[in-house]
Amino acid sequence: MLIAFAIRYFIIQPFVVDGDSMLPNFINNEYLIAEKISYDFKPPSRGDVVIFRYPKNPGIIYIKRVIGLPGETVEMKDGKVYIAESTDSQPEELSESYVPATTKTYVYSESEKNQEYKVALKDNEYFVMGDNREHSSDSREWGILPRANIIGRVWITVTPL
């Protein structure tokens, strides 16, 4: 029993996808296993799908994809995402094989679809987005994700019957 407790709380943890923000790659009610130990040895990488505590209410758990890393600048322009790896470098368009080719990425405010957006990430700050860009509450809406809020990385998925 003690071993099962240790595994559940320190190594892996089950989650259920709640909503459509990660379509088409993760579906509502899909079961996930997150592994929690690898980020103790290396930081999250771009493209990782992470489970985390919502920064505005840590009691709520979210799943999103890591887009921007500490020290980078994330920019959205003309429906595309650009990453500058440092303040001195030119932004390059992010290659996103996990979203449909027709996907356009914008930042939404209450009144309009913003065509341009730019944010510089500091140490231990990440920019995350859902794969279903038009139906995702993510860093475009509520800001950066602190490293301390990340629980783990999606390791295994089990599609419901």
TrEMBL record:
Membrane topology reported for the UniProt record: Single-pass type II membrane protein
PROSITE patterns on file: SPASE_I_2 (PS00760), SPASE_I_3 (PS00761)
UniProt-annotated catalytic positions: S21, K64
Broad enzyme group: hydrolase
Localization per record: Membrane
Domain Peptidase S26 intervals: 2-156
Main location: membrane
UniProt keyword annotation of Hydrolase present: yes
One of the protein's GO biological processes: signal peptide processing
GO cellular component: membrane
Keyword terms: Hydrolase, Protease
Pfam families according to UniProt: Peptidase_S26
GO molecular function per UniProt: serine-type endopeptidase activity; signal peptidase activity
InterPro entries xref list: LexA/Signal_pep-like_sf, Pept_S26A_signal_pept_1, Pept_S26A_signal_pept_1_CS, Pept_S26A_signal_pept_1_Lys-AS, Peptidase_S26
Its EC number(s): 3.4.21.89
Keyword Protease on entry: yes
UniProt catalytic activity: Cleavage of hydrophobic, N-terminal signal or leader sequences from secreted and periplasmic proteins
Family to which the UniProt record says this protein belongs: Belongs to the peptidase S26 family.
Classification via PANTHER family: CHLOROPLAST PROCESSING PEPTIDASE, SIGNAL PEPTIDASE I
Protein name as catalogued: Signal peptidase I
Gene that produces this protein: lepB
